[in-house]
Design a protein that fits this description.
The complex is a heterodimer of chains A (306) and B (331). With 306 residues, chain A is α/β, with parallel strands linked by helices. Helix content of chain A is 40%, strand content 10%. Chain A contains ten helices and seven strands. Chain B is α/β, with parallel strands linked by helices and 331 residues long. Chain B is globular and about 60 Å long. Chain B folds into two domains: 3-182, Thiamin diphosphate (ThDP)-binding fold, Pyr/PP domains (Rossmann fold), CATH 3.40.50.970; 196-322, Rossmann fold, CATH 3.40.50.920. In chain B, the strands form three sheets. In chain B, strands 3-2-4-5-7-6-12 form a seven-stranded mixed β-sheet, with helices on both faces. In chain B, strands 9-11-10-13-14 form a five-stranded mixed β-sheet, with helices on both faces. Chain B has helices spanning 6-20, 44-48, 60-72, 91-104, 134-138, 151-163, 211-225, 243-253, 268-279, 302-308, 312-322, and strands at 3-5, 24-28, 53-55, 76-81, 114-119, 144-146, 168-173, 180-182, 196-199, 204-208, 230-234, 237-239, 256-263, 289-293. The chains are: A alpha/beta (306), B alpha/beta (331). The interface between A and B is large, with 44 and 42 residues.
Chain lengths: 306, 331
């Protein structure tokens, strides 16, 4: 969680300064969801994500340098500098690709789950998406198909209450996203998305069911993004309500909560850990900044696989 | 050689693919129905099991997206859309996802997916069951598009499409299903991007696409009876299309007609005409002619259908124009 936080703070600085030019969607404040979910997965499982995927990429084992270099458009980026912040990939880590079409990878995750099932592999596919994605029709098509074919798939809805600038109440009548799967016979659960242990336990249970053929599950993880929809700003310009909400949610910082818990368990000295994360970030940033820019002569490469 | 119908050739390609490669599976609508796919998939579910021949709910977007995801996870899916019109509900997985994937991730992954869709014209089915939309897909980088016009190509192009590491849109036309022709029994590939010269001639080149390739052959027979020798090229692949073969023929005859089964504006025929006009301008003796559908939706009534769909005579008239002869003039 701390690595995600610090990495995104560094990206926020690069975004503000103009060093990073691609649109960057930060998940600061939401770190417990990717950290908790990915900790419950094992090698061979895959995660699929959207535009706000830095946290998932890192939680699943993606490289810091690969992330920074991608955001900076360097060929050493995880997508060779072709994708930017919204297109992260880590084939070795079970990250087949993230894309910014809202809900775009949810059916793809179901297809991967179908492939695992057809081949008799005990693997699970996880689709991460925001609360805005629930308003896309393909989510409901996929929920039905995942239930019908009993796919080893977990739908993880990161409900940060806002779709871009619109609060949930401006988009829906009821605050009931954990029921999204019920009509399609996909069991749903609401989890405190700022409690990493809660997210981990809920995911572990859902993954265990899915892995052994009991079908998909839907997790609604309640959380809040501290920054704007895109870029480094706090997004307070979009409304008075959001400013008040942000103050409340800052009190529920998932990292501070986890640190307090560790302190209660007698693991109080986190200073070396923090220093280690800072050192990793600094090293990765320096390496990414030193990476080569793409060769303009090669702009036509990779349209088709050979 | 053994003779099969176009629809039998498509079915045989599926059986050979399913038998040879455990990564291949079929997903889409109408797969368990005896009539939905016009017999092209008949009883495949009984032969290969319903786990590998999945007849799905009417959810084109998610089903096509699932096929993309399965392809990324190492399978070789064929996703089936019995009406090309309904593929429009799945444009995101086809264009945003499958077609872009290789480029976006710098070649680290690609989507080996076949999207099969059927043009289902005629029979008073109207504008939403009849559209030939191939030009829209031809526009998209990263997506290959093939349209077989013979039983042999129907089989060979499907086998080649499934082996290709990229997304391939395979469009077949219900009006061709009864067409017969020689089809080798073994598994073989018709190379994507390669056109076939179906008739050699010296006076005019006719490039035919899908159903219109068959019309072009009929037109060539009529022209031959008037002493005009037409060269007929069956394009087979729209993207990539066989520029060298088309250019070579156009340079030889100096006259080109492109006969397409789609609309006129920004259509496949326009692209081919523009390329030949640019590359072979000084070898042409006459302006390039296009024989296409008019820029109107497909009508429903039989009377209007007959007026709407061009046949061999429209191609013959185009040939007369390129040869500077009046309509109805004797050879």
């Amino acid at each position: 969680m701390l690595r995600i936080r610090r990495a995104e703070e560094a990206i926020a600085e690069m975004s503000e300064s103009g060093e990073a030019r691609c649109p960057c969607h930060l998940s600061i404040g939401q770190e417990a969801v990717p950290a908790g979910v990915c900790a419950a997965l094992r090698t061979g499982d895959t995660i699929w994500g959207g535009h706000r995927s830095h946290g998932h990429y890192l939680a699943q084992g993606g490289s810091l340098e690969g992330l920074f270099a991608e955001v900076l458009g360097k060929t050493t980026g995880c997508a060779g500098g072709r994708g930017g912040s919204m297109h992260l990939i880590g084939p070795e880590q079970g990250i087949p690709g993230t894309v910014p079409i809202v809900a775009g990878t949810i059916p793809l995750a179901a297809g991967a789950a179908l492939a695992y099932k057809l081949r008799g592999e005990a693997r699970v596919a996880v689709a991460f998406f925001g609360d805005g994605a629930i308003e896309e029709g393909s989510v409901h098509e996929t929920l039905n198909l995942a239930a019908l074919y009993q796919l080893p798939m977990i739908f993880v809805c990161e409900n940060n209450l806002y779709s871009s600038h619109l609060h949930w109440s401006e988009r829906r009548v009821a605050d009931n996203l954990h029921h999204a799967g019920a009509f399609h016979s996909v069991p749903g659960m609401r989890v405190d998305g700022n409690e990493v242990g809660d997210v981990f336990r809920a995911t572990r249970q859902a993954v265990a069911r899915a892995r052994f053929g009991a079908g998909p599950a839907f997790l609604e993880c309640r959380t809040f993004r501290w920054r704007g929809h895109v870029g480094a700003s706090a997004d307070e310009d979009v409304g008075v309500r959001r400013r008040g909400e942000l103050a409340d949610w800052l009190e529920r910082d998932p990292i501070r909560r986890a640190e307090e818990r560790l302190a209660n368990w007698g693991m109080a000295d986190l200073a070396p850990h923090r220093a280690e994360v800072d050192r990793e970030i600094a090293q990765a940033l320096a390496a990414a900044r030193g990476g080569p820019a793409p060769d303009a002569q090669r702009v036509g490469e990779h349209v088709c696989a050979p | 050689m053994r003779t099969l119908t176009y629809v039998q050739a498509i079915r045989e390609a599926h059986t050979q693919l399913l038998a040879a490669d455990p990564r291949v599976f079929l997903i889409g609508q109408g797969l368990w129905s005896p009539w939905y796919a016009g017999g092209s998939l008949e009883d495949l579910d009984r032969e290969f099991g319903r786990e590998r021949v999945l007849d799905t709910p009417v959810s084109e977007n998610a089903v096509t997206g699932m096929a993309v995801g399965a392809a990324l996870a190492g399978m070789r899916p064929i996703v089936f859309h019995p009406r090309l019109d309904f593929l429009l509900l799945a444009m995101d997985p086809v264009i945003n996802q499958a077609a872009n994937w290789s480029y976006l991730f710098a070649g680290q992954a690609s989507v080996p997916l076949v999207i099969r869709a059927v043009i289902n014209r005629g029979g008073e089915q109207g504008a939403q069951h009849s559209q030939a939309l191939h030009a829209m897909f031809m526009h998209v980088p990263g997506l290959k598009t093939v349209m077989p016009a013979t039983p042999a190509a129907a089989k060979g192009l499907l086998l080649a499409a499934v082996e290709d590491p990229n997304p391939v849109l395979y469009i077949d036309d219900r009006w061709l299903y009864g067409l017969t022709g020689p089809v080798p029994e073994e598994a073989y590939r018709t190379p994507i991007g390669q056109a076939a010269v179906r008739r050699v001639g010296r006076d005019v080149t006719i490039v035919g696409i899908s159903w219109m390739a068959a019309q072009a052959l009929a037109a060539a027979e009529l022209l031959a009876s008037q002493g005009i020798e037409a060269e007929v090229i069956d394009l087979r692949s729209l993207k990539p299309w066989d520029q060298s073969r088309v250019l070579e023929s156009a340079r030889k005859t100096g006259r080109l007609i492109v006969a397409d089964s789609g609309w006129r504006t920004a259509g496949a025929a326009a692209e081919i005409a523009a390329t030949v006009a640019a590359e072979a301008f000084h070898d042409l003796h006459a302006p390039v002619e296009r024989v296409t559908l008019p820029d109107t939706p497909a009508p429903t009534s039989r009377v209007e259908e007959q007026a709407y769909y061009p046949g061999p005579l429209a191609i013959v008239e185009a040939a007369w124009r390129t040869l500077g002869r009046g309509v109805g003039a004797a050879a």
